Amino acid sequence: MPHPIELGLDTFGDVTASADGSLVSHAQAIRDVVDQAVLADQLGLDFFGLGEHHRIEFAVSAPEVVLAAIAARTENIRLGSAVTVLSSDDPVRVYQRFASLDALSNGRAEVVLGRGSFTESFPLFGYNLSDYEILFEEKIELFAKLLKDSPVTWSGTTRSSLTNQWIYPRPESGTMTTWVGVGGSPQSVVRAAHYGLPLMLAIIGGEPARFEPYTDLYRRTLSALGKPEQPIAIHSSGFVAETDEEALEIVYPHHMAFMEKAGRERGWPPFSRAQYLQGAGPNGALYIGSPETIARKIVRNLRLLGASRFDMRYSMGLLGHAHLMNSIELYGTQVAPRVRELMQDATP
Q1: Does residue 72 lie within any of the structural domains?
Q2: Is 221 domain-assigned?
Q3: pLDDT above 90: residue 269
Q4: CA 168 to CA 38: how far, in whole Å?
Q5: pLDDT at 53 over 60
Q6: What pLDDT score does 225 carry?
Q7: What is the pLDDT of residues 54-81, one digit of tens each?
Q8: What is the pLDDT of residue 117?
């Protein structure tokens, strides 16, 4: 592996259930996220990310604000988005917010740019879904220019033009780690390579093996464009408990409830327990099980895709804060060291 192995966590700030079954407030969910990030830092994990959503079941709609609070209470863990919905935001403001986070965290900020799996932000901020493609295409072009330590000149159709314009604050290092989040589109993979940005694969369903052609395409495109090799990361949902059986049973009702709600919104057929178990199986996209099971699955897919980083979305449905803290503890103390141990072994 040309890049060191890294293990991270991310969350959407899911509204969780308290001990009596009632839902916690959005405010409490955000405070819980900060505590979860502090634990991740204490355990020596590499990255903590927050997704941006504008739905009732998720509390985090302004990741940078929450990440700034986390920065003040942590020391080493890198902090970023998972993802920033660039299409419905302004690239200059995104850059400024993350550059400010970079300053507050002493250079630990990262941003993952994407289009998101939900579309609520488009009407909320006055954008038309018919402009879905052009919005992201133009805005990532501008963001790539902002990353260079030089004045920016840019023009397009989705915002006002810039002419020889400096954007402040500037990161102390001169630039900022920026990933492109991709859900499985060849065009998105080629776009990430075109800008020479690291690739974050959002594998939220199906088999991870189906992404192998995309990582191959990414590397070939980088090479063809004469750009240096970049790291590849995997993002997937998961939950760790002492045993496989315990993990599967804890998550099952919460995952099913979420899938049923999403299915009603998107016209999917009913989701079955068999599909859940298949997704959590060796070839599925869910990382639900014991530390050993999860570690081996992470290693298998890192090797399969030539990736060097795995970020687990540890919050699934209404799972309570205590369950999430326990899962983070197991991930940091048992999964992460086991992954690094297995990656040193040349055998599959």
Answers
A1: yes
A2: yes
A3: no
A4: 29
A5: yes
A6: 98
A7: 999 999 999 999 999 999 999 999 999 9
A8: 75
- As a whole number of angstroms, the distance between CA 334 and CA 348 comes to 19
Question: How do beta strands 309-313 and 232-240 pair?
Answer: parallel
pTM of the complete model beyond 0.90: yes
Residue at 18 is within a domain: yes
Give the rounded percent of residues in the chain with a pLDDT score beyond 90. Answer: 87
Q: Phi, psi (5° rounding) for residue 309?
A: -140, 140
* Strand extents, DSSP E, 115-207: 152-154, 162-165, 177-182, 199-202
DSSP structure string for 325-344: HHHHHHIIIIIHHHHHHHHT
Of 37-46, 100-109, 111-120, 168-177, which gets the smallest average pLDDT?
111-120
Query: Which residues are within 8 A (CB) of 226 and not within 5 positions of it... i.e. 6 or more apart?
Result: none
Give the pLDDT of residue 266.
81
Report pLDDT for 270.
Answer: 85
Element housing 113 (H / E): strand 109-114
- What's the CA gap between 327 and 320, in Å, rounded? 11
Amino acid at 111: V
The CA distance from 298 to 303, in Å, is 9
Q: Is residue 311 part of a domain?
A: yes
Cβ contact 291:342 at 8 Å: no
Tally of domains within the chain: 1
Cα–Cα distance for residue pair 172/4, rounded to 1 Å: 23
Quick check: 78 and 34 in contact, CB under 8 A?
Answer: no
Contact status, residue 109 vs residue 50, Cβ threshold 8 Å: no
Amino acid in the structure at residue 28? Q
Name the token pair of 91.
Answer: 């690239």
Phi, psi (deg, nearest 5) at residue 162:
-125, 140
Print the domain residue range for 228.
6-343
Q: How many CB atoms lie within 10 A of CB 210?
A: 12
Residue 277 sits in a domain whose CATH number is: 3.20.20.30
Distance between CA 68 and CA 122 in Å, rounded?
25
